[in-house]
Structure formats: structure tokens, C-alpha cells
Amino acid sequence: MVFITEDMIKQFQTLMAEIDEPLKKTFQNVHQGYPTEAMMRFLKAREGNVSKAHTMLIDCLNWRIQNDIDNMLAKPIIPTDLYRGLRDSHLIGMSGYSKEGLPVIAIGVGLSTFDKASIHYYVQSHIQMNEYRDRVILPSASKKFGRHISTCIKVLDMTGLKLSALNHIKLLTVISTIDDLNYPEKTDTYYIVNAPYIFSACWKVVRPLLQERTRKKIQVLSGSGRDELLKIMDYASLPHFCKKEGSGSARYSGNGTVDDCFSLDHSFHQQLYNYTKEQAKLVEADAPIKQGSFHVDFPEPNPEDSNIAHSIETEFQRLGNQNGLSSSLRDIKINAD
Q1: How distant, in Å, are the alpha carbons of 106, 151, 275 from that of 102?
Q2: Residue 26, burial from CB neighbour count under 10 angstroms (0-12, 13-18, 19+)
Q3: Which fold has domain 73-277?
């Protein structure tokens, strides 16, 4: 684990003092009043190498300017039916807070289909959630809990994970690369729940390929993870798929009320969607809100990510061959390419 020293921070601060005004402006949306903490995140992502961390941050700031990321929260995805389709096919939401005040982000990895829109809409939606988390949710959590909060917890539901997930590798690699390069060290811990055999087999292959700092953040829990997660969050903050004592995804909470945090009807998504529409009105004044996806430049994946994606694909193919599914896997690979 890299230890960030005061000298590293001072060197970084000296370099950042020399950047141009446009970069300084977008950096404000990155650090949200805590520039030193932001620089520390980039230092951790580059193992304490000041030069590499500075290059990474400058590349991030240029990416933000070139793709108008500062205004991403003023670009709602409309009409509502299209956005509902995104929410129904990319299962992600916020279920509450940990006892320490960290937002709990739930992700339905196994049941996400990514089949309701183009890749650009999914990327736009994902970046909007990142920006809303960093510029609205985390500052609000800091105020609520009386201390600076800059990270979240993610609970990944593997219910329904199948070999057909190979279809999603390209999109997931794009999203992962955007997060790694532009939103580093924003997740405190990843909890894996409801893991089927196919995940366990792939995890054995992928785990050794991960950097130590990433590997230490990932915990694979038994079944729905309910008992373990209740040690760090209250029942009300549990994602709906963790509220069963055994394994398997739960669509409803124990009292019979719908609390699916993936749904557009959930309070988190309603607040986020209304926020983007209000921001659009402020930016566009009396002009109508534009329809259509907002294209973002896709960064080249890190060699490490490419290696992991290849390893997952190879392992899926091996599992498919074991089950006599080699022909369907070939079709999946063609579609993924």
C-alpha cells in the first residue's frame, strides 16, 4: 500500500499552481473545495509517483474540457421513456448510506442487459451519475455527517450472470476505463453478493491480475451478504437484493413495499433526473431541451484492463466449451466485436 507523504503533496501542489486557468476551473468541479484530497487520489492511483499522477490529472482535466463534462448534469436524457429504458437495462442506483456516511451504490451486474439504447447513452448516463455523486451527493453527505466524505461503497449483485455477459465486455471496459482515468479512488470497498459459479470461476482467474490496492478493496460475500453488510449499514440502506437472508436477488423488501433502487421511480433517480432537467433550463434559458445522446470520447483502455477483459473472455469460452456451448460463444464474440 502506497503511503502519500507531505513532500509528494507539496511537489504536486507546485505543479498544479502552474496550470492554465481553464484547467483550474474544471479542477474545481473535481475537488469540490478539497484540492489536496483530490491530488491524493491521483497519487494513490499512480502509486505515489508525482510526475505520473500529475500527468494523469492533467489528462483528466483536458478530457473534461474537450467533452464538456462540467455541463454534463445539464444534459438530461429525454424523453423519459428512453431514460426509463436505460434504468431498466443498466441496473444501478443508490440505496442509502453506511454508518460512516459513505453513499451505498448498488449495481445489478448479472441482470443488466444494456439493450435499450446506444453505447453513448449508457456512457452519458454513467458519467452523469458520477458527476451527481461527486458534486451533489458527497458534499451533502459531508455536511450531514460533519466530516469530509469523498468515497462511496459499491455492492455488486451477480444474480443472473450468464455466458452472454460477453456481449457487454466492450461497454463495461469503456465505463471502467473512464472511471479509472478520471474518477480514481472514489470507491472505498466493492462487495460482491449473490455470486454464481460462473463468477467464482472467473474470479479465480482475474484476482491475481488485479493491482494489490484494487484487490484489497474487493470482498466476495456469502449469499446475499445481508449479515455482513448489516455490520456497516442499517437495514434501510441495504440494497433490495440483499434483504433476503439467503442467496438470490430480492425485488421487494420484507414489509412488502417496493424499494427497488434501480428503478427510475426510486427517490434517488427521481432527484437525479429532475436535477439534470432543472440544470438544463438554467443553461438553455428559454430554449427547448435538446434530444439525442451526448457523445464522449472513449479513452483507450489500460493494458491491465485489456488483459483482464481477455482473461474473462477466455475463461467464459472455457466454461462454454465444458457445457457444449462453443458455437453460441462464437456468436457472442462476433456480436461483441
Answers
A1: 13, 6, 21
A2: middle
A3: Phosphatidylinositol Transfer Protein Sec14p (3.40.525)
Q: Which residues does residue 233 pair with via DSSP β-bridges, in sequence order?
A: 98
Return d(Cα 165, Cα 179) in angstroms, integer.
20
- Provide CATH 1.10.8 ranges for the chain: 6-66
What architecture (CATH level 2) is domain 6-66? Orthogonal Bundle (1.10)
Pure H helices in the chain: 6-16, 21-31, 35-45, 50-66, 80-89, 119-132, 138-145, 169-182, 197-206, 212-215, 226-229, 267-284, 303-322, 326-336
Cβ of 146: how many Cβ atoms within 10 Å? 8
The mean of the pLDDT values for the chain is: 87
Position 190: which residue type?
A: Y
Chain segment 206-234, per-residue pLDDT in tens:
888 788 888 899 999 999 999 999 999 99
pLDDT at residue 191 is higher than 50: yes
CA 242/CA 154 separation, integer angstroms: 13
Alpha-carbon span 272 to 72, nearest angstrom: 12
Q: Which residues contact 43 (CB under 8 A, 6 or more apart)?
A: 2, 4, 8, 9, 12, 49, 50, 53
For residue 44, give the nearest of 10, 11, 2, 9 by alpha carbon: 2
**Burial of 90 from C-beta contacts in 10 A (0-12 / 13-18 / 19+):** buried
Grid cell at residue 78: 429525454
**Residue 111's CB: how many other CB atoms inside 10 A?**
17
Q: Order of strands across the sheet with 103-108?
A: 92-97, 103-108, 152-157, 187-193, 218-220
Radius of gyration (C-alpha) of the chain in whole angstroms? 20
Other CB atoms closer than 10 Å to residue 255's CB: what's the count? 7
- pTM score above 0.85: yes
Delimit the CATH 3.40.525.10 region(s) of the chain: 73-277
Under 8 Å between Cβ of 332 and 167: yes
